[in-house]
Fold each of these.
Amino acid sequence: MEDQVAWYGKVARRKDLLAKGCTAWSLKMAEEAGLIRRIARGYYALPDADPLDVRLALHQARRTCFTKAEQLGLWVIKRPPLLHVAAAHGPPIPGCVVHKVSGEQTLLNILRQCVKCGSEVEGLAALESAVVLKKCSIAELRAEFAGREDTRGRAIIDMIDPQAMSIAETVARYYLRKSGLNVQGQFYVKGVGHIDLLVEGVLGVETDGETYHNTEQGWAEDLRRENLLVIKGVWCLRIPAKLVLGRPDIMLSWVRQALAVINSAPQ
């Protein structure tokens, strides 16, 4: 029972739990045992549920769109200023953008909302991460976005690289390609390993996030790779992930300047 509720983010609608095979009897027994608690009409929660989800349940609402995508661990470039929530009713909910949703929300429903609500690159980050994290396949995405009105979604799916390793890599690749540059993802350099991106066949781009690179092991590995790239004659820019996500214009400027230097160097 706890697993069924946890699948929805530790707060779930009764009708969704029943649709997944739970019974009214099992819900009652779990509630009496203290495994779950009823928090609003038709809503149950685990004891350690997020207070935000509990508050939304009081409004007969649930997280959705980018707000739910972030909770699911998908790549979200920037948290929306207002919560995006799903509700079957129409009245506004303070501090929220309300999506009118009456049935169960699947992952594909949520990804569809991200494509509709966000920019092209925001939609790409969400969809690509769902594939990279093996939450769905490209084939499933294509089936979901097969309608006449899904031209935008199909264009985003065509940009997905299932080998991508981070949101920064995805966003950098998007802006570099949009600027007209040829970009290869996860390019392999013998003796070094994979670099995030190879631009115009001559310039490597590494998008460094703090989680891995600001560690003793990460720092040592970065030094090893940098030294070997120099030895092998491979030009490479190291660009902080925060800059890629927040100021892609600066990243593009650095890349174009580096390409200019490479192209002007004696052969």
Note: The two ends are 67 Å apart (CA to CA).
Amino acid sequence: MTSSATPRYQQIAQMLRAAITNGSYKVGDLLPTEQELCATHDISRHTARDALRLLTEAGLVTRKRRAGTVVAASSPPNLFVQPLGGFQDLLQYARDARLTILAYGPAPADGFARDLGQDPAGWKELRGQRGTGTAMVGLTRILVRADCAPSQAEIEARPTIADAIEARFGIAASRIDQQISAMVLDNQLATLLGSEPGAAALRTRRLYHDGNGALFLASESAHPADRFVYSMSFNREKAE
């Protein structure tokens, strides 16, 4: 039973979640509109919107303008958990979060190379999706130095682009710099990710340097907050 102390929007979200879980609303079904929820439950438009936002953040529904709120899953999708540890943990993400290539070619003048202060003429850019099974956990763009850029077939044949580069050109990362920052999804990213514009997300940027310290590979990914989490464990050190 829902406590009376529970905010009204959470009560409505819990009720709708239960209806999705028990099959009253199946995947692909439309949920009641905000106006219908307001009329049925005597709530404000703001309360209805917040209730649907909770379901969206849980990955149970997707909300699209003029299409309504559609049930996307019967249970919340599992988060992709990325250990935030050593060198091998960073490489493991690329191996576990499967890459689907959407585009791969010369780096555009207004793309990732420009953001990194690099001359686009010397690079190739890949854009793709990261996922586990059928669940997409993020969008990624990857910059590869043109003189060590594998073919798309070589990339698809290896667990990671770094593996493909090492196999083809003998260049391996000796240092990876990682930056993690908060972001909100703009309209374009939200549409591609099936999320709500303005939803919270994580941006991860990784810069791969060879043995001479030269940048040869870079990646930047956007992960909706409800699909991705970084995890660390700390052991208390014993006093001397």
Note: Helices lie at 8-21, 34-41, 45-57, 87-96, 112-115, 152-156, 161-169, 187-193.
